[in-house]
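Morning, I've got a small favour to ask if you have a moment. I've dropped the whole record in just underneath, so have a look.
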Amino acid sequence: MSIASDLIYDVGLHRGEDTAMYLAQGYRVVAFEASTENCAHCRERFAGEIVSGRLTIVEGAITDGDADTVTFYTHPTVSVWGTIDPQWADRNRGQGESEPVTVAAVAFSSWLAKTGVPFYMKVDIEGADRFCFEALRAFDDRPAYVSLESTKARRSCLKAEFDLLEELGYNRFAVVQQATIGGSTRTATTRSGRSISYHMEDEASGLFGRDLKRWESRNRALRRYEAIFVLYRLLGDGGVRRYRLGTRILDRLEGLLPVTLPGWYDTHAQHASAS
């Protein structure tokens, strides 16, 4: 099976913030989303692209099991915090109690076999990202570029993410601060190689692939995360931001200072075959 060079996987569709950019760049998109509400919103938003075959929405949650359904925890105020991991739901309790609902389980490997391996695979599904990358082990070809939301929990978990990426053949990495992307305007490259000015929606993951300028080795990327983990521990979801008052104080400070406290980060990876 070869890579489908015109295809992107948007794993964690949410409200379509990233899919909209990928479509504007001229790619076909297969998007995965567990929230019924978000799926309904995107089916209406992208009705034309769905009819034309440029977008396929797969409703359900990606897991590593064989069950037909899975419990999905929806957050009452922060919709991007939907997760199948009860520990993540517990982590988010400081800003509201998540509601457990039953959703369909998605066999990710089956979709890879059906569509072909995508050129780029964006994964942001709150604690279940690794299931998508573990599924790639069954395929000889791998996406030229991938991204995932980096773990905030433990350095050992972060190292395990890099170990898995290296096992799959990824050898260059980019650490991207996500909190500064929404509302910005960036220069993106279309599939045909044309540059376009694109306004990033709130919660967008942003640019990928060759549009990212700072690619580096595994060791340099991990050293960058050392400083980030200090901020996570003090100011992140397990620190000050665990509480509503702490979040309000930090949000007010962010409005006064040219920094994000602490923000959150995606790890992008480039496959050796794309170098």
Observations:
- The domain at 3-274 is CATH 3.40.50 (Rossmann fold).
- The chain has one domain: 3-274.
